[in-house]
Every structure is written in C-alpha cells, then in structure tokens.
Amino acid sequence: MDITSIREKINLFIYSSKVQNLRILKLISFGVSLIAIGSLFAYHGFDLDDETNNWIQIIVEASFGYYVFHYLAKVFYDFAPIEFIRQNWFEGIMVLILLTEAILHNVFDLTVVESIFDFLGLKSGSALSVVFLQVYLAVVVFFELSDKTSLTSNIKLHPSTIFIFSFLVIITAGTALLMMPEMTAAPGGIRFIDALFTSVSATCVTGLAAVETSTFFSLKGQFVIMMLMKLGGLNIVSFAYLAAFLNRAGFGMKQDEIIEDFVTKDSFFNAKQMLLKVFIISILIEVIGGGLIYLLLTPEMPFQSEGDKIFFSIFHSISAFNNGGFSTVEGGMFAPFLQKAYIIHVVVAALILLGAFGFTVLFDLFTPSLLRDRLKHPWKRPHMSTILAVRTHMILIGITVVLYLIAEWNNTLSDQNFVESTITAVFQAVSVRSAGLNTADVHSLAIGTIFLMIIMMFIGGNTFSTAGGIKTSTFALICINTYSTIRGKKNVEVLGRTIPTDDVLKATTVLVTFAGGMIICTYLLTLTETHILALPDRSFIDLLFEEISAFSTCGYSTGITGMISDAGKYILIFSMFIGRLGTLSIIFAFARKILTTNYSYPEEHIMVG
Question: Where are the domains of the chain?
Fold first, then answer.
C-alpha cells in the first residue's frame, strides 16, 4: 500500500469528525491565548514572588505546547497536508521556532532567543519577545475563528464597527499595561489619564506625550509604546483588507462598495494574502530602517550598551514608518547628539515618507509584476488615486520646503549651511503632515512657519496610510472641484478622467467634518487652558497648533502638552481618536443610514457667495 492510499484511508476516517474537532480546538486555542497573554502581562507588569513566577512560566510553556499540538492537528486533519504546510508557511516557522526552543531548553538547558538578547544587553528582550509571540499566535487564532467553519460566521458586523472596536481594544489593553508598576521608572507609577493619553496617542500614531517618554517609562513601558504604535499603524493600513477578509460574514453590496474605496479590486478578492503581505513588508521596511539607523550611530553618542543602540534604532524606525512620533530620548530628533546627525535625519525622513504614502500606493508603484507589465505596455499606468496622491504629496512637500527655507533662513537655520538647512527643511516638510518627529525647536519657529505647519497638518498624508489629516486626495479633489467651478465646467476632470460626483461630495464631507471638529475642540481648549493663555510666552496659536496636531494625528507640539489640564487632555484624547478614524467612520456611518438614493426632489436655486 502506497502513501496516497494510506492518506485516502485517513481522510475517510477523519471526514465525519473533522469540522467538529477543529472547531473545538480553535475555541480552546482562543481560551489558551487569553490565559497565557494575561499571565504574561501580570508577570511583566508586577513584582511577583518566585512561586507565582514559576506557575506563570508553566502556563506559558503549556500554551506553547498546545499551539504545537494544534498546528500538528490541523496538518493531520487537512485532506492535503503538504499543501496546507505550504500555504501556512509562516505559522509553520513559528511552530518550528517553538519546537527548537523547547528541545534546546529541556535537553541542553539553552535558550537561543534569551542568549541573543542577553548578549545584546537587552535583559527584558527575550521575555518581551515571548509576549509578542503570544500576541501573534492570538491573532492567528482570531483569523481561524473568522473562517466559514467558525461560530463567528453567522455574526454580521459593519466595517466601521470592526474598525472602531479594534482601536478601542488596543487602547484599553495599552492603558492597562502602562498602568502596571513595572512599566514606569518614576515612583508611584502613572495616573490613569496620562496612561490613557499615552495609549491613545501611540495607538492613533499621533506622538503627543503627556509625560516624558525617555525618563518616565522603563524599557518595558517603552516597548509597550512601540508595540502600540506598530499595532496602531498596522490597524489603519490593514483595516480594509481585514474587512474584506471578513466579508464572508455577510456584508452587503453597499458595504463592499465602501470597502473598495480603500483597496483595489484585485486585493479586495485576495484580502488574506494582502494582510500577510502588508505585515511582512512593514516588518521588512522597519528592520532595514532600524539597521541603517544603527549603522549611522557613532561611539560618541550616549548609549550604555549595544542593546540600547539596537532598541533605539528599532523604536525610531517603527515610530517613523508608522508616523508614531514618539522617541526614547528627550527632545526626540532634536536631542543634542542628534541635531547634527543629518544622514540619520534623511533615513528617518524616508521612513516617514513611505509610511505617509500608504501601502496601496507602494503596492501600485513597486509591485514587480506591475512594473514589468508597464514596461511591456507603456500605455498602462498606475491607478488614478496613486497618481493624484503622489503628485499632491510631492507638490506639498516642495511648497513646504521652499516656504520653510524663506521663513527660517535668518531664524532657526541661521547657523546652518545650505545643505544642512535643506535637509532640515525637507525633514520638517515630510514629518509635519504625519509623523511629529522634529529636528527643530517648534516654539522658536517664526509665526509664518507655525501657520504653514498648521495648514500642512490639516491636509495630512495619503488615504489608507498611517498619516492623519483630511488626506491629500481630499485636498486635491477640493482644489480640482474649485478650479472646475471657476472655469464653469459641469464635470470635475483630472488627467483625462472625470471624477464621480460621489467622490467630490465625500471629499467635501471630510473637509467640513474635520474643520468643524477642530473648531469646536479648539474653542473648548480655550475654556479649559486659561492658565496657558495667561503665560507671557504663550498665545492662542499654541492651543490651535496643539489641537490641529491632535486631530490630524501628527504629534507636533510647541511644548505645551505637559501643561495641559486633565480636562484638556480628555479633549485631545477625543480629538486623536476621532481624527484617527474620522474619515472612514463618517463615510461608513452615513452609508449605513441611507436606504436608497434612487429619487430626487424638484430643483431650486440657492444664492451662494
């Protein structure tokens, strides 16, 4: 009897019990994940006794053992196990790592990951990597629970509900983690409002800090902030793919149309693979960026160990690419030992730019198959959204660079030569619309420059990117529509194409909503922050700058974030949260309420202007 015949007999034997057993194993996996992650959070967040730590270690090892068993069970129950291993290769690598670590630890009393982190000087690195691995395995379980054999297949959730709920879960978990004693270096821990503010700022990839990240938080706390930025960045760029992947839960045609506003039709029908592609490419970019930053660090810089240099590099690479805006050194990129590190500035600016472009733009421009197809057929071009986003983005950067140089040449740039001044101007032009990392003292900038930055923060980056603001596509459509109206055109046209009226109306809705939200929140800040307005070196523009930075999830500040009252912090928290998911959630909310548009009332002229 050959292998094929044996496999056929096994398939017949397991056929009747396959669905039920796999469903039970998935539900058990989800419970195991929650218990293991909760145990790890307690282990790293509190100073526990040895007996409790030993029990937690047993729980974690048992959970890893179950993950291995579950993976092998899935291979066994699949009718084509070789194909299953090939399609789920990444999960297989994770399981192989677990098996290797278990064998080395139990047979040779050696752990490779822990040894590597100890060698690099990161004492908490191996332990925190275990947390990250557990979270990853929990995500794997979540996707398993989302397929057709799962109990969740009958749960119909609107895309905006999934999006908002996912952010709330991450923010809540981040707040709870940051409040644990081991996360802060300062005595007495962190207040709830400051923990919530930090968690929202990191998850919404803003960068405003209620407390000094470099001194207030321990290495564990900084690691949590880094992971929140990573999860927040992935959440915004992978949301539409996730919604498309969960489309099997029963979204309607109108909801499909909404999701397709943020992903291409090809990726819409290949969402699971696109999710994995987004994850892998983002990790690859961050690792390359971190490696370049590490290589550019000099011995004169104040790092205590190789581990500190590596963590600094990876943290700032993740912060830049996800447009997070946080830094592990006081003053950020304007810290004394980084002020003249212009090559590092260039690397960080490149990471910010890639993050602000967004994955749909990057995939459309740099996917090898598409590049080959365009070389073979020159008449083919990138998607209209890509062309419009890139052109608008680069034009805005160019305008900002020129105006920044003009305004600051005899001010903050007076001690720099032309090349250094240009690098500084380019960095601010790239960072101001999304990241919040700065290489200049914002409070010392000219009023004209501050006003320019306010405008650019309001515009933000590209759609479906980690940047905030009304987005470049919205700004471009508003400008094109205005130009068409002035010219007396009935249609909005660009690059030989007519833009649908629905898109123009959506752009107008986003503009009005963002502007209205910022105006209301700024007014509220003038009521709660009278103590800041009373200071001799502060004015209304500081509050306006802070609010627009929060609403646009940029993270720039003139230095008043630490002075904001608790009431003001809640206003900024609301601004960051709404600003992060405002465009999508507003469009989804309106789309959900409209039952039909197949009607029209009699027309009547309204006087305008």
Answer: 1-155
